[in-house]
Amino acid sequence: MDGSPSDPGQAPGSVSELLDRLDGLGATLPKRLGQCADYLRHNIHLVAVSTVADLSAGAGVQPSAFMRFCQALGFSGFSEMQALFRAEYRELRPDYAERLSQLRERGEEGPEWLAASFAEAGHKSLVSLMNGLDGAKLDEACRLLAAAGTIHLVGLRRAFAIVSTMGYMLDKMQVPTVIHRTSGQIESDHAIRPGDALFAVSFTPFSQETLQLAARTAERDIPVVALSDTADCPLREAAKVLLIAREVDVGAFRVPTAAMTLATSLAVAVGGMRKDRLTIRSNGSKME
């Protein structure tokens, strides 16, 4: 069993101080806590928006080991450490102008370097997706959507690319689909009827319009399938199934490689299920 280093004293007052403390601990950390340290360094953007279960799974340790890791850094537990990251979240996720500036300062703005970096980040995102994919949840999501009379899609800002592509694919497979854009702040709940289903996509820091539509739909006992980048997403309260797709970024820019892959898989599977059902019904009608 892994032990814990001696009490480091007061908790770090900033993320940079936390990283300095990690440098100081170095090889003194037991094996499991060392795994936690390595994972945190490479996924620092996830700490503010993930659960201890998510992070411990990513590090390949038990949640109890990740809790000991937090305590080894001087925190009372995971919640205190996460609060530090959340307080500095805007610093960790600067606006687009600042992100470009950071890339230029590092001399990392050439198109060839960017293409290689985004390709590598996409590969890492896909590996992470497959390592953490819950096949049973994905199957349940497919069945809920395939059984719907009409599939309603909602995803704003960064998530809109996901639902618009999924809507295009479903339409090509002749699956009745509606994309909700909340244009002009007009609520479109009336279009979602019993027997339908809603697929809602929202990433940190989350779209309130998407969260509200999902909540109102769930209150009417209409199934909601959700896609986000954290298991701690507010959509979990409304969703019958919550799928997770996390992205590795490049200079704080993210390409939705994992999310698009998951949504595409979902669309193709749903289209296939509906086609099989129509074939069975058609064959049954011919036999009567």
TrEMBL record:
Question: Boundaries of each HTH rpiR-type domain copy?
Answer: 16-92
Q: Does Ribosomal protein count among this protein's keywords? A: no
Reading the lineage from the top rank, the first entry is Bacteria
Q: Enumerate the PROSITE patterns for this protein.
A: HTH_RPIR, SIS
Q: Which UniProt keywords apply?
A: DNA-binding, Transcription, Transcription regulation
The residues covered by the SIS domain are 141-278
Q: Which Pfam families match?
A: HTH_6, SIS
Q: Which InterPro entries match?
A: Homeodomain-like_sf, HTH_RpiR, RpiR-like, RpiR-like_SIS, SIS_dom, SIS_dom_sf, WH-like_DNA-bd_sf
What protein name applies here? MurR/RpiR family transcriptional regulator
Organism expressing this protein natively: Jiella pelagia
